[in-house]
Structures are given as C-alpha cells and as structure tokens.
Design a protein that fits this description.
The protein has 78 residues and is mainly alpha-helical. It has helices at residues 2-10, 25-38, 50-63.
Length: 78
C-alpha cells in the first residue's frame, strides 16, 4: 500500500488510503509524513477520533516530524 500511495502522489494524484483496523494505517501515515517532511513538503491528516489525533501526534514526535493539531477543544499547537 505504501508503494502504491507513493506512486499515485508521484503521478500527481491525491490518493486516499483505506484499510481495516489493525492493518497499520498509523504507521503508514507516519512513514508517508516523514518522507514528505524530508522532501520539504507537507501533508494534512484528517481523522474522526480524538484518540487517533493524539496517537498520530506522538508518532510524529517520535520521528521528529514537525506538526500541529487543529481540533476543537485543543489549543492550536502551531
């Protein structure tokens, strides 16, 4: 899935990755965001669960990926 998403972006598409719970979407998101960061690009990640926002934020922190959280009830982190 990672290679397919990267190829779609390379071709100028805006892919949407969908996979079941437990398939590693958080890890995949972290890897794609890290790759984009190293190239000086940015990504937007949207999720419907507050828990997932904080989980991804921690993953991004662990990889040294600068990011911000913009969510109701949470002070804009930058």
């Amino acid at each position: 899935m990672l290679n397919d998403l990267r190829e779609a972006v390379r071709l100028g598409k805006k892919p949407l990755g969908v996979a079941p719970c437990g398939s590693g979407k958080g890890h995949l998101t972290k890897m794609l965001a890290h790759s984009a960061y190293l190239k000086g690009k940015s990504v937007a990640v949207v999720t419907v669960r507050r828990l997932l926002v904080f989980d991804l934020s921690k993953r991004f922190d662990d990889m040294g990926i600068p990011h911000s959280i913009q969510m109701a009830g949470v002070k804009d982190t930058g």
